[in-house]
Amino acid sequence: MWIHVVKSKIHRVKVTGADLNYIGSITIDEELMEAANIIEGEKVQVVNNSNGERLETYAIPGPRKSGEITLNGAAARKVAKGDILILMTYAMLEEKAAKTFKPALVFPNEDNLLA
Asked: Spelled out in words, what is the top-level CATH class assigned to the domain 2-103?
């Protein structure tokens, strides 16, 4: 049996931008992506704590140590600058591996940077 598990979580980042005219995706500071083990193009679930919206898109790296969290394309309509988000990715593991798997959990500071 295969189990979906949380692979990565970036907890409580602040939206720095929303670009309706970009093709799509979420731009995430490259340092945060690396810390959370998120790769370019990976599907990301976006949970907006500020308005309750949830959506899925894919990750693209933003400038390292910039704190950038920008929703692009249609997803830009689901956020406002300053909204607080939780970003998560998932993996499918066999049941035995899923029982011991530990996700990458990242808790940035209020500027979306690692301490």
From this structure: mainly beta
Q: Is 73 a known ligand-binding residue? A: yes
Mean pLDDT along residues 94-98: 97
Active site annotation includes 90? no
Active-site residue, selected from the candidate residues 8, 22, 50, 58: 58
Q: Is 25 a catalytic residue?
A: yes
Can you point out the beta strands (E) in the chain?
2-14, 17-19, 25-29, 43-48, 54-62, 69-72, 84-94, 104-106
Task: Specify the pLDDT at position 11.
Answer: 98
Query: pLDDT tens for residues 18-74?
Result: 999 998 899 999 999 999 999 999 999 999 999 999 999 999 999 999 999 999 999
Handedness of CA 36, 55, 12, 66 (dihedral sign): positive
Write down the residue that tokens 């790769």 correspond to. 39
